[in-house]
Amino acid sequence: MTKKNVKDDEKMRLSLVLSKTAFERLNVLKDRTEAGTYTEVILKAIKLYHDVVLGSDIIKIMVTKDVEGVISFHSVLPNDKKS
């Protein structure tokens, strides 16, 4: 991906090579979230990952609930800022 005088709202094209497993996961997410496109799934995943990683100083535990109603707790540890 190249960047030449890119405006903040300008769209960029990205080409991905995924393993079969990663593509199957992407497909499951697309179906479960009723997303219209794979791009929509990827954009939402990037936003979530961004919020978890950059918000990790604030977020200490993430709670998830699966389709069967099982609640899981996941520790979200901040990056080691000493190194």
| End-to-end separation | 29 Å
Question: Which structural category fits the helices and strands?
Answer: alpha+beta
Please provide the count of β strands.
2
Write down the overall geometry: extended
Beta strand %: 5-15%
Stretches with pLDDT under 50, minimum 5 residues: none
Sequence of strands across the biggest β-sheet: 1-2
Please identify the oligomeric state. single chain
What's the total helix number? 2
Query: What summary fits the major beta sheet?
Result: 2 strands, antiparallel
Helix amount? 25-40%
- Average of per-residue pLDDT values: 81
For the CA atoms, what is the radius of gyration? Answer: 16 Å
Encode the helix/strand succession as letters: HHEE
Explain this structure.
- The protein is of the alpha+beta class and 83 residues long.
- Helices cover 36% and strands 12% of the residues.
- It contains two helices and two strands, in the order ααββ.
- The protein has helices spanning 20-32, 38-54; strands at residues 61-65, 71-75.
- A two-stranded antiparallel sheet has the order 1-2.
- The two termini are 29 Å apart.
- The mean pLDDT is 81.
What is this structure's SSE topology?
Blueprint: H1 20-32, H2 38-54, E1 61-65, E2 71-75
Antiparallel strand pairs: 1-2
Task: Report a brief summary of the structure.
The chain has 83 residues and is α+β, with helices and mostly antiparallel strands. The chain is built from two helices and two strands.
